[in-house]
Amino acid sequence: MVVIMKAGASEEQIEAVASHIEDRGVKIRRIVGEYQSILGIVGDVAPLVAEREQLERLDGVESIVRISKPFKLASREFNPVDTIVSVNGVSIGGKEIVVMAGPCSVESREQVVETAKAVKAAGAKILRGGAYKPRTSPYSFQGMGEEGLRILAEAREITGLPVITEVMDQQMLPIILEYADILQIGARNMQNYTLLRAVGETGHPVLLKRGMMSTLEEMLMSAEYILACGNERVMLCERGIRTFEPYTRNTLDISAVPVLKELSHLPVIVDPSHATGRWNLVAPVTRAAVSAGVDGLIVEVHPQPAKALSDGAQSLTFSNFSEMMTSLPVVAAAVGRRIG
Amino acid sequence: MVVIMKAGASEEQIEAVASHIEDRGVKIRRIVGEYQSILGIVGDVAPLVAEREQLERLDGVESIVRISKPFKLASREFNPVDTIVSVNGVSIGGKEIVVMAGPCSVESREQVVETAKAVKAAGAKILRGGAYKPRTSPYSFQGMGEEGLRILAEAREITGLPVITEVMDQQMLPIILEYADILQIGARNMQNYTLLRAVGETGHPVLLKRGMMSTLEEMLMSAEYILACGNERVMLCERGIRTFEPYTRNTLDISAVPVLKELSHLPVIVDPSHATGRWNLVAPVTRAAVSAGVDGLIVEVHPQPAKALSDGAQSLTFSNFSEMMTSLPVVAAAVGRRIG
Amino acid sequence: MVVIMKAGASEEQIEAVASHIEDRGVKIRRIVGEYQSILGIVGDVAPLVAEREQLERLDGVESIVRISKPFKLASREFNPVDTIVSVNGVSIGGKEIVVMAGPCSVESREQVVETAKAVKAAGAKILRGGAYKPRTSPYSFQGMGEEGLRILAEAREITGLPVITEVMDQQMLPIILEYADILQIGARNMQNYTLLRAVGETGHPVLLKRGMMSTLEEMLMSAEYILACGNERVMLCERGIRTFEPYTRNTLDISAVPVLKELSHLPVIVDPSHATGRWNLVAPVTRAAVSAGVDGLIVEVHPQPAKALSDGAQSLTFSNFSEMMTSLPVVAAAVGRRIG
Amino acid sequence: MVVIMKAGASEEQIEAVASHIEDRGVKIRRIVGEYQSILGIVGDVAPLVAEREQLERLDGVESIVRISKPFKLASREFNPVDTIVSVNGVSIGGKEIVVMAGPCSVESREQVVETAKAVKAAGAKILRGGAYKPRTSPYSFQGMGEEGLRILAEAREITGLPVITEVMDQQMLPIILEYADILQIGARNMQNYTLLRAVGETGHPVLLKRGMMSTLEEMLMSAEYILACGNERVMLCERGIRTFEPYTRNTLDISAVPVLKELSHLPVIVDPSHATGRWNLVAPVTRAAVSAGVDGLIVEVHPQPAKALSDGAQSLTFSNFSEMMTSLPVVAAAVGRRIG
C-alpha cells in the first residue's frame, strides 16, 4: 500500500499521516520527491485495506494506491493448482469441458424429461432448469417452485444427469438443497451477501454468475465470501455484461475467461445464451469460449423455443444443440481439451 | 403491441402468427407493406407482453414492438396525483424537499447521537444510518447489527428524527421493522425480488435505490413488485449509475429526476454521496438535484470522516453539511419548492 | 511515479528496472516490503510518463502508478485563475452565465434570422447553428455548407449576436474562420488531433465537446492539444455520455461540472439538448447545470421543431425557450451567479 | 415504419400526422386500438427515415418505430455474397483467415524490417505499422511521419508483404496512398465523415475500426459512407469497446463477429491487441476470434516490447507471435477455415 501525499502537504501533515498508519502496527518508508512525498507501507496491510477510505480523508493525502489484490482464497497465488469441482461423478475444472444444458424454466414434466434425454444424447453432462425464476416484471411467470424441483429430480433419476438450479434467497435454500446438485447464484444476486454466506455454509457446489455490471474483481470478491465460509466448490460464470450495444442482450466479455484463469484457481464457465440473447449466436460464441479456455458451458435448450415461458429467443432446439455439440470436440482438441 | 414480420415471410407464416396471437383473445389488424407485413394487436395485450420472447421465435417474425409501458401501478397514468409518503409527521413528495442525513454506518452511540443532533440542527428531517452493511469484501466491517438498530432508535428518541436504515434480506426484516421508520433497499438488492415482495407486504415506507446497472424502467418494475403487494409507500432513489468515467464513484443520472417525475407518481430522492463518492462534490450536485426537481435527498454525514469505518471519502463533516444546508432554501425557492 | 514490482521479482530484476529508469536522469528511492518492492521516482518524471507502457513490460514489474496529472496547461495548478474567454464583447467564464442558442442546423435565412431574434429577446448572448453537419447516415441532410455560414453571418449582423458553428475538419477551417466567432469541435471529433492542432493554431475561441465515451481526463488532454498550440481560448462542454440507459439520448454527467472546475481553469459549458434528446427535459436539466456551477449553456431552439431537418425531438420552441430563460436568473442568483 | 400515437391523441391529431406523412408520397394504414392508434407506413419510407425526429415532434405522436435497417449497401440483403477484398494477391473474406502483424509504431528501419521478416516467417500475410499516431497526449510520440512510410515500403520490398497503415485525416491521404496497400481508419475516426468520404473516393482497400463507443449499426453506417462513394473494398474491424471493466484496456465484443457476418457481406477482422491491452491475453482471444468466424486478424508484434514507443504492454515478441501462429491452423480447421 502506498500513500501519495499532496504536492503542498506540510511536514506536520505527513508526520500525522505516518503516525496514524504506524499505529496499526505497520512500518512506513518515506520517499521525498521534488513535488510530492510518498509513504510506502511495509508489513501486513490487511487491516489497513478496509480503512482505505479513511486514510484518503486524512489531511494532506492525495490518494492511496493498493498493491495487493483484495481477494485471497480465490487467488491463484493462494492456490496455484486448478480447483476441480466434482458433482456426482462429473468433474469440472480438469481437462474435460463440461456442458450443462436444459430449459430456462421448468414448465412441465414432459418438457424437462424430454429435454434431459435430448441433451444427454447430444453430450451434455449436467441438466439445467429453473424452478424459481427472477423476473423483471411481477406479472411474468415466476416458476413452478417445488413442483419444478421434483420434476428436475425425476429427470435426473431417468437420465443420471446431475441437476443445477437457481437459488434466489436463503429461505428457499433448504428445499433446493433437497433436490439440486449444483446451486446457481444468478447475476442479480452476485452481491447478495446474505445468500453468498448461506450457500458458503452448505459445502454444496455453487455456480456464481457475474453480475451484469460487476467487474471481475468484484466477482472474485463475491467468490471470496463463499470460500471464506469454508465452501471451496465454487465455479465462476461469465454471462455477458451490460454495455451500450443494443443488438445483443448483453456483451460477452470473452477476455474474462483467460483473465479469471490467470487470477484464480476456480473453474470458469460461460453462458452463451444469456450473453447473446439470440439463439443463432449461441454456437459461434460457444466455440469462441471453448477456444478461449473455458472449463464448462451452460446452454439453454427447449423442445419448442417458440412456446417457452421464458428466454425463448435465446434457446436452442434439440437439433440446434445437437449440431453445435457435434462441432465442439474438434474445437476443444485444437486447444488441448476434450468435451467431457 | 405490434408484430413486424420478416421481409420474406410467407402467407402461411403470417397466418400462423396471427392465429397464434388471436388464440389469446385479442384481435389482429394487418398492414401489408411493400416489403413487410405488420400485425397490430388490438385489445388487452397484457397476457401477451409476458410472452414476447415466444412470439419473437415464431417463424417469419422479425421483431415485436411493445407500445404500452410494462409497469402499471407505478405509472403516472394509473395515478396522476403525486404520491406523498408520510413518516411520523414528515411528508415526502409534496412541496417540501426532505433531507435525510447521517453516517454511512452506525459505529457507536456517541457517533450517532452527536450526528443526529447536528443534522437536525442544520435542517435534516430524517436520520440515516446503516446497522447491516453490504460490503464488497467479506473482510470489511459488516455493521453493528441489532446493537446498531438500538442506537438509531435511541437517537430518534433524543432528536425526534425518524430513522431510515437498510434491510439486506427478508430474514432480518422483522428485527428491522422493530426499529426503522423507513426501509431502505440498497442498489445491489434492487432486483432481489424475494426482498421486494417481503417489504411490499409490510406496508412500511420503502426507499428503493436504483441498481448501479439498472435502467429507469427496471427500477419502476421493481417498484411495481412492492406496489403489487399492496404497499404504496414507495420512494425512488437515484444514486448514480456505473459508467466508464473513473473520476467519480458513479455517474449521477440527473435526468432521471424529471424522467421519473414524468413517468411515475412516486417521490424521487437523490443520493449525492454515493453518486459522487467525493465529499467536495456533494454540495454542487445536491443543489443540481434540487433544481432538477427532487422530493428528497439522502446525504452521508460523519463527525470525523477520516475515521469513518465506511464511506469516509464521501461523507460531509458537520460544518460541510451545515454550510450546504444553508445554501439550499434559496435554490429550492428558485424552483418553487421549500426545504422541509 | 511509482513502480510496483511483482511479489516474486528477483534482486536482479529490481536493479535492472532501477538502472533503466535512472538512465532517464531521475532518481530512485526503493522501499523493500515484506512481499513486494516499490520504486519511487524522484525528479522530473515527464519524459517517463510517455514511456509508461514500456516500463510495464520490464521483467518483474507489476504496475506503474502515475501520480501527477498528464495535462499541464489545462490544469488549475498551472493557472489558478479562472480563464475568461471573450468573444466580441461577451465574456465566458466570469460571474455571468452565458447562454448560446439557436437551431441544430441552418435550414434557411428566415429560420435563422427569426430564431436569432427570438433567442436574443429571451436573453441569449450567442447564436448557434450548424452549416456542416456530422450525420450518422450518408443519406441524412448534411448541412447547407457555405450558404449556411453566410446566413449565420447575416443573422449576426441583424442581431449583434456572435456566432458559434461546428468545424468538422481542418480543410473547412479557413472558410469557417471567415464567418464564425467561436469554433465548435463536436463530440465525434474530440480526439481528432489533426483538427485540434489546426484550431489550436488559429487563436480563435473554441468550444470543445466531450466525446460521448471519453473520460474527463481525456477531454482535458484534448484541450491540452489546443492549448499547447498557443490558443488559450478554450471552453469545455459536457454534452452527455453514452451509457446503458435508453430513455435519454445520452446521460448528462452533472458531476463533470464541479470536477472540471476543480481540475481546470477553463470555462465549463453544458449542452442540455444533446444530453437528454428530449425537449421537455431541457429546462430542468438546464436549471440543474446552473446550480452545479456552469459558465455557459448551449441550447437548441427552432421555430417549428416538428419541421426541423435535425434534432427536432430535442429542440425548444421560442416559447419553451423564453419560459425557461425566465426561470434562470433566480436559480443563478441562488448560487451567486447572473445570467449574462 | 410505424407511428405509435399517444393514448389520448385526438382524431384531429391523428389525421394531421397521417396527412403530414402522406405528403411524402407514401400510404398510411391505420389501426385503431382500444387505447392507442397506430399508423403503418406503406411504400418507400427512405425519405421519411431521415425525418424521424421531426415526426416524433408532431402533436399526438408517442414514438416512431423503424423497421427496415438504415444501411443498404453494407447489408447482406443488398449483397448476399461475401465480399472478398484483394490486396496485392492476398484475399480477405474467403476461406482463408488473413493475419496482419507488425509494430504499433514505426520506430526505425531495423525494427520494422526485422519484424516484417519475423511475422512473415510465422505466417502473417500483411505488415502493419503506424507512421502517424493518434495519441491521447500531445506530449507522447506522434509517429515518424513520411520517413515511417518509406520504411514500411522498404520492408514490403524486402518481404513482399503488403502494408496497412493508419490515415488520420484527408490531408495526409495523398502521401499515404503513395505507400500504403490498405488504409486504416482508426477507432477515434470511425465517425470522421470527411475522412470516410475521402477514402471512399480512392477506391483503395480500407480497414474500418469500430469506435470504442460505437454500436454495430453505427459502424455499418460508417461503412455505408465509404461504399456510397463507390469504394467496395471495405473491411470491418472489431477492436474492443469501452465498458466499466478496468482489467482489460477494452472489452472485445466477440458476438460482433457473427453479428457482422449476418448483417453484412463485408470481411470482419479482429484486433486482439487493442481489445485486451495485455500481451498475455492476445493468444487466447485470437483463438476465440478464429472460432467465432473472423476473416482476418491484426496483431501488434515488436522485437522488444519493453522498448516500444507505444503499446508495449500489448505487443507480442517474435516468439510469442510465432507460438500463437503455430496454434491457429488447427483452430481454424475446426471451424472449416484455413490460416491464409
The number of helical segments of chain A is 12
Largest sheet of chain A: 8 strands, parallel, barrel
**Proportion in β-strands of chain A:** 15-25%
Tell me the overall shape of chain A.
Answer: elongated
Q: What oligomeric state best describes the polypeptide chains here? A: homotetramer
The strand line-up of the biggest sheet of chain A is 7-8-9-10-11-12-13-14
Tell me, rounded to a whole number, the average pLDDT of chain A. 92
Please outline what is shown here.
Chain A is an alpha/beta fold and 340 residues long. Helix content of chain A is 36%, strand content 19%.
Description of the structure:
The structure is a homotetramer of 340-residue chains. Chain A is an alpha/beta fold and 340 residues long. Chain A is 36% helix and 19% strand. Chain A is built from twelve helices and 15 strands. In chain A, the strands form three sheets. In chain A, strands 7-8-9-10-11-12-13-14 form an eight-stranded parallel β-barrel, surrounded by seven helices. A four-stranded antiparallel sheet of chain A has the order 2-3-1-4. A two-stranded antiparallel sheet of chain A has the order 5-6. In chain A, helix 4 runs parallel beside helix 5, helix 7 packs across helix 8 and helix 11 packs parallel to helix 12. Chain A is elongated and about 75 Å long. Chain A starts with a strand and ends with a strand. The relative contact order of chain A is 0.13. Chains C and D meet through helix 3, helix 7 and helix 8 of C and helix 3, helix 7 and helix 8 of D.
